[in-house]
Specification:
Elements: H1 4-21, H2 25-34, H3 36-45, H4 48-60
Helix pairs in contact: 1-4, 2-3, 3-4
Length: about 60
């Protein structure tokens, strides 16, 4: 069974992604210009929302 804290973190990350990441113009443009890998790298290294999600991911492992 999952702990309540883990569920809260997952719920928060899902809400962040739904609010900010879905339909992100910059992400779509980076995919067109440089491919999925480049867009993903930008999101996890330079995007403030992506950095927050990365920090929450560290708490899960």
């Amino acid at each position: 069974m999952k702990s309540p804290a883990r569920k809260e973190v997952l719920t928060f990350v899902e809400s962040l992604m739904a609010q900010y990441c879905e339909g992100c113009f910059l992400h779509r443009q980076l995919i067109k210009d440089g491919g999925r890998r480049k867009a993903h790298q930008f999101c996890i290294s330079q995007c403030t929302v992506g950095q927050q999600i990365k920090e929450f991911g560290k708490k899960l492992s």
